[in-house]
Specification:
This protein is of the alpha+beta class. Helix content is 31%, strand content 17%. Strands 4-3-5-6 form a 4-stranded mixed beta sheet, with helices on one face. The longest helix is centred in the N-terminal third of the chain and has 14 residues.
Length: 172
Amino acid sequence: MTFDIELVIVKMVIKMNLYDIEVINSHNQKESLSKYKGQVLLIVNTATECEFTEQYDHLEDLYEKYHEKGFTILDFPCNQFGEQAPGTMEEIMSFCADTYGVSFPQFAKIDVNGPLESPVYTYLKEQQKPELSKRIEWNFTKFLLDQNGHVVERFEPLVTPYEIEDKIIELL
């Protein structure tokens, strides 16, 4: 019975459009991702105490450079990997703003794997190239999406945001 229910949920998510998904924003309110329709998106699972946290600086640079041209970064803090995103949402946002000047949209903490996985990440993993692992392995895994909400490419944490810049430009 449980398997049947999980299969139905997976089939529903596969047919779901990114813009049908609602998330909890940094102010603890529901927000539809339809708000970002027509924009090139970079969706990132982040953590404030990770060895890749300095990528926030790179992400903010790209956001400032291309936001007016239709590019947005969506930041989803995740505490699943070594509990490297501790604290409240307010503490995370304060750290990001004070340390890296982050101004792109940030959302409530989520899980990117497992039974409590956010529908955003279920959608992203189902839309990526089939030869890639569906499991997110660490913080700062990045998904680049076109203006129609389709996953163009997934980038692992070692790929810096600057290395993605040319692909962002191509989509804009």
